[in-house]
Design goal:
With 279 residues, this protein is α/β, with parallel strands linked by helices. It has one domain: Divalent-metal-dependent TIM barrel enzymes (TIM Barrel, Alpha-Beta Barrel), CATH 3.20.20. The protein is 42% helix and 14% strand. An eight-stranded parallel barrel has the order 1-2-3-4-5-6-7-8, surrounded by six helices. Strand 2, helix 3 and strand 3 form a beta-alpha-beta unit. The longest helix is centred in the middle third of the chain and has 21 residues. The two termini are 29 Å apart. This is Xylose isomerase-like TIM barrel. One of its GO terms (molecular function) is isomerase activity. Pfam families: AP_endonuc_2 (PF01261). Keywords: Isomerase. InterPro entries: IolE/XylAMocC-like, Xyl_isomerase-like_sf, Xyl_isomerase-like_TIM-brl.
Length: 279
Amino acid sequence: MHRRKFLQGGIALGTMAASAPPLLGGPFTGKIPKSLKYSMIGERLPLADQFQLLKQSGFDGVEISLRDGLAVKDILAAIDATQIDVHGVIHGYDDDHSASIDLCQQVGGNSVLIIAREIAKLSYADNFARSLEIARKAIPHAEKHNVRLLVENVRASFLKTAEEMARFIDELESPVVGAYYDTGNTITWTKQSAQHWAHVLGHRIGKLDIKDRGHAVFGNPKLKSKTAVGTDGGEVHWQKVRQELATVNFSGWASAEVAGGDAQRIAGISHWMDQVLDL
């Protein structure tokens, strides 16, 4: 999309929004700001224009990683120009979290997504102990910069049940550590439902990753389970997930983690998040 076409489209969207009646929203309106992963933005535009696209599509923030290769000065300039927050950093598989924590602090974020990675040659007990040690080493640096370490439920982790992940977080005994709860990741490689993970993790949940593996548009139907039954055409039972989040009075960021694309696709993702989160 050319810059001029994008800006003209933004003016049109702004005019439509100004003339539309106010939306009342749902029970999580004002409690769950919307975000997505920076790598999902398919429009090749200057960073500030990409952030403006997010704002016009109804997003409040974005999550980045070191792999995105963004300069801190450019990020800060884009934040100032658009008021889009860079609320967190996605850490990779490196055992040293300090660079991601530093980046998060520099851009005004408040969390680093981390993974309790499984080493195939190690036993479960050794994997557990190893990951605890790695996280413990990162905690002082995270505390210093007022950044949380949020453990995500992912296939690459040895934590295959919600109970295991809750125990891992609790053993670290630090308010800095919590859960980055991914709704879609519960479907294809665990035998527990999305709502069960939400129930068990409960108050530990700091942020949400939003996806639905079985959804035809915002998922991957090829990975669809034969037994899971959800809502919205997918496998996550969003009503039950929302009920569990409401029980613990959840308030925090929700980031879409699905296939990205152009401005139309980004706007569609935003609308879909409004539906499944009842915003």
